[in-house]
Amino acid sequence: MSETSRKIIEGVTELGAENGMYGMTSKAISKKCECSEGVIFKHFNTLEELKKDVYYSIDSEIYQSISSVEFDESDVKGSILRIWNEYFGFLLANPVKTKYYKNFRASNLYKDHDHAKDNDHYNTIISEFNEISKKYGLYEKINYDVLWYFIIDNSLSFALRISDGTIENTEKNKQTIFNIIFKQIIDELGVAKVGNNG
């Protein structure tokens, strides 16, 4: 990626975090990035493509942050917690990107973006969790899409609450958030039967 493209993406990330997806005109981006509108369209075909590329870039960073966590079937809850801690840690460490990510997911752009790009990330990372979920019939009890919307949307909201100081950034609060988000999943998986951290 060229330095100019990187600068544009950084500027769009900040604008999208501040104003959402719909206040970002080429003029506003040009002013933010201190470049001409022509330069923007030299690097990106359309504003829609640019906004999606920023989302994919953040999604890829999230993937990188949690890709090294191994899933241990003998410790289901502990494995889920370790994956989520890496994910949540990224969200807390990058509040501007987190806000952009949340705003993008709340926009119409999210409905028609290439879901395969982000689904591949999550399916790769949680493939073992998915296998265990199938084994214990979780997806027969809980709609798969609803499940991940619930996990991701609530994680994003709580991370932003901590970032803006509404919720204190303590290990106790993060553990409480994890327990709230994953309670039904842990219960449905029957952690007492498949893990020793129930």
Account of the protein in words:
The protein has helices spanning 3-19, 26-33, 37-43, 47-66, 76-93, 95-105, 108-111, 115-125, 127-135, 138-141, 144-163, 171-189, 191-194. It has 198 residues and is an all-alpha fold. Helix 1 crosses helix 6 and helix 4 packs parallel to helix 8 (115-125). The termini are far apart. 26% of the residues are buried. The model is unreliable at 192-198 (pLDDT under 50).
Write the layout of secondary structure elements.
Elements: H1 3-19, H2 26-33, H3 37-43, H4 47-66, H5 76-93, H6 95-105, H7 108-111, H8 115-125, H9 127-135, H10 138-141, H11 144-163, H12 171-189, H13 191-194
Describe the structure using short key phrases.
single chain; 198 residues; mainly alpha; 0% strand
Q: Please indicate the percent range of residues in DSSP E strands (runs of 2 or more).
A: under 5%
Average pLDDT metric = 85
Helix content: over 70%
What summary fits the major beta sheet? none
Structural class from helices and strands? mainly alpha
Net shape = elongated
